[in-house]
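Quick one, tokens below:
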């Protein structure tokens, strides 16, 4: 009994550490970048140490959401059968391995994550996000003082993750904090801390200049506003919060971020005043060009796709044919996970991916797990401008929290 208890504790501790270190993943900082994969390996070893494999197999067979995850990953494995580029396909399967590992661990383990443990994991993630933002701004301040350079926005600010991914992490942290706050009946010292964190993370997202991050977080705030008004009947509180967050956005974009550093203003200019140029490297225009080129690839590979290993080769070939030198030189993916999956796996792939979201959102609504619903909305919207499952920082985030929230027995916060 004592051994089982210790294994259960180790299971929780590893989940807490993974959540904490998620915001610190970076190819440039090798030690921290390797931390999450190492912790994941330890989680696998601990899962094996649990034993009771008959029960695990039984859970695997009876758990429909778990079978959806496994089936989606297996589609990529099967997609290797008609792929020519086996090297790229193998790397892609390795990157997406978390889509198989975390669902199996959380979906078959006998140690269900309860509400108390879930909150500890959430706090670890929020703490990791906060420390990561502090490091980013401290680094920018140091460069400004020593080199007189403005590194307070976009990729220069984000030391660890790409700004789009970091903004997604911070958006989810805000959603968690909101859910914790809304569950409380009175304002306490902890509530003040949580309110500060929401403001701080919102400020950080604006400074990161992630267009998707700002838009998606803004949508979340609107959802929060209507939920506070309709469900909690906190009309004044909702209005004050909405006005304050809106004022922060306009103050930062007007007085802190100068016009030449504003990606939002640049995006408006590019989309409204500039004609599409096939040689462009500008992110908004190049996305439109890529999506148009991707549509042609999908038409030619509609049923089963190009194969797991050939999706990048097909994109590069199409870019070259259409004179899209900006996309070709930067070796860009489809910049939309739904399109990326459709190109690779055809109809089965897009159906599988959509099924993950539909089943997840339905499960969240049915069990009234608001954090899970917010998570699915955040990732769904981020999958539109980015191919989030093509890099580990996107795959691990999606697989870990999706599995954790889907298979936890916790009541909604």
């Amino acid at each position: 009994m004592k051994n089982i208890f210790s294994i259960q504790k180790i299971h929780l501790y590893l989940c807490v550490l993974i959540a904490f270190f998620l915001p610190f993943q970076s190819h440039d900082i090798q030690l921290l970048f390797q931390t999450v994969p190492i912790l994941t390996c330890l989680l696998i070893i601990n899962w094996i140490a649990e034993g009771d494999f008959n029960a695990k197999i039984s859970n695997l067979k009876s758990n429909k959401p778990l079978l959806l995850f496994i089936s989606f990953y297996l589609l990529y494995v099967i997609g290797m059968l008609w792929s020519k580029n086996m090297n790229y396909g193998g790397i892609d399967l390795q990157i997406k391995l978390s889509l198989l590992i975390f669902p199996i661990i959380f979906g078959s383990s006998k140690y269900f994550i309860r509400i108390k443990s879930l909150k500890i994991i959430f706090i670890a993630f929020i703490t990791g996000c906060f420390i990561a933002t502090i490091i980013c701004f401290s680094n920018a301040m140091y460069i400004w003082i020593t080199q007189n350079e403005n590194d307070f926005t976009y990729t220069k600010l984000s030391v660890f993750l790409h700004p789009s991914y970091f903004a997604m992490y911070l958006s989810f942290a805000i959603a968690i904090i909101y859910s914790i706050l809304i569950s409380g009946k009175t304002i306490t010292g902890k509530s003040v801390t949580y309110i500060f964190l929401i403001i701080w993370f919102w400020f950080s997202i604006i400074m990161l200049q992630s267009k998707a991050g700002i838009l998606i977080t803004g949508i979340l705030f609107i959802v929060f506003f209507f939920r506070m008004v309709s469900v909690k009947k906190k009309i004044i509180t909702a209005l004050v919060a909405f006005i304050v967050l809106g004022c922060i956005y306009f103050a930062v974009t007007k007085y802190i971020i100068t016009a030449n550093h504003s990606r939002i203003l640049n995006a408006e200019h590019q989309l409204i005043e500039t004609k599409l140029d096939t040689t462009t490297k500008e992110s908004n225009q190049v996305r439109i060009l890529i999506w148009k080129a991707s549509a042609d690839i999908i038409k030619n590979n509609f049923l089963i796709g190009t194969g797991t290993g050939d999706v990048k080769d097909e994109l590069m070939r199409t870019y070259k044919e259409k004179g899209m030198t900006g996309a070709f030189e930067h070796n860009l993916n489809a910049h939309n996970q739904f399109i990326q999956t459709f190109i690779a796996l055809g109809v089965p792939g897009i159906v599988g991916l959509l099924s993950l979201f539909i089943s997840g959102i339905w499960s969240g609504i049915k069990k009234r797990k608001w954090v899970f619903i917010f998570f699915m909305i955040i990732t769904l919207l981020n999958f539109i401008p980015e191919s989030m499952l093509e890099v580990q920082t996107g795959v691990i985030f999606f697989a870990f929290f999706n599995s954790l929230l889907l298979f936890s027995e916790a009541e909604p916060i």
